[in-house]
Amino acid sequence: MAWTAVAVPLALAAWVVPQIVLLMLAALAGLYFLVLMFFAVRTVAGASNGAAAGTVAVSWILLAACPALLGPLHLLSGWLASPLFLLFVFYYLGNRISGLAPVCAAGRTSGECWKPRR
Fold it and tell me: Model pTM?
């Protein structure tokens, strides 16, 4: 919701203002997004001011790496979503997955579901 609160007014301004003004507005919108994310992290995670500021600061490192990782991740997501890959995963892990439900239903915790019963 924070991104929408920043992006929608900026998209509407793109229709009205010149290019140089739009660049300045985009920079201000980015700073406003940082402030909104700071408060969102504090509210949702119950984090302190320092932890929320650190989280917001580190998130921009990952955002800067996105263009470099977009190509390989797009290729990988295509493979992982293919029906043939899903069929092989079900074929090789089917016994383990199908045997999981009765074990977990017997009252074992989620961490114990993957361990064999003694």
Answer: 0.55
